[in-house]
Amino acid sequence: EPEVTQTxxxxxxxxxxxxILRCVPISNHLYFYWYRQILGQKVEFLVSFYNNEISEKSExxxxxxxxxxxxxxxxxxxxxxxxxxxxxxxxxxxxGSSIKVFFGEGSRLTVL
Amino acid sequence: xxxxxxxxxxxxxxxxxxxxINCAYSNSASDYFIWYKQESGKGPQFIxxxxxxxxxxxxxxxxxxxxxxxxxxxxQIAATQPGDSAVYFCAENITGRRALTFGxxxxxxxxx
Lengths: 112, 112
What we know:
The structure holds two protein chains of two kinds. Chain A is mainly beta. Chain A contains no helices and eleven strands. In chain A, strand 4 and strand 5 form a beta hairpin. Chain A is globular, with a radius of gyration of 13 Å. Chain A starts with a strand and ends with a strand. Chain B is mostly beta strands. Helices cover 0% and strands 50% of the residues of chain B. In chain B, a hairpin with a 4-residue loop joins strand 6 and strand 7 (72-77). The chains are: A mainly beta, B mainly beta. Chains A and B meet through strand 4, strand 5, strand 9 and strand 10 of A and strand 3, strand 4, strand 8 and strand 9 of B.
């Protein structure tokens, strides 16, 4: 069964450092997403991406965040200067034309 | 309202019993709903979805009920198994938007 894959599974970084989280969405999907989940809390929408541009973003997705589809298969989330409160699980997801969204296993980010 | 912190409502059932997990959604404009299962350290896994023009939908061992009048969604799991132990989230969406809004989750514990 096709699945969304994410790397790394866990990243530890120092506050102020840049982080890039990588994802390979399901191959025939059109929409790509990033969500995050702070430990013990609900899953929160960050951004959706379609046709090589951001289609929707939340208040969380401020200027410190950016997304890119550098080639035909990868989708990345960059955090420019990490803060302690960026520590969370970051989930990449994808969907076809419907809103039936499939999630990856997540990348755990720990900011020290 | 918002649910913050580590505490999740917990439903504890015996193996073989039926489980009912409830969700109150927030936006009366939402017209598409998904139930996700999240096992520890993993990403949300799609279980079943329902559109607002339906009030019931059945899958394999699962049924989702939607009551738009009171903005309530439930997930029924028949013959609950130990492998069903996880946190269950409902998520809502408004047609035309790509963001899913997740509820705060319910932990299901299945006792053998």
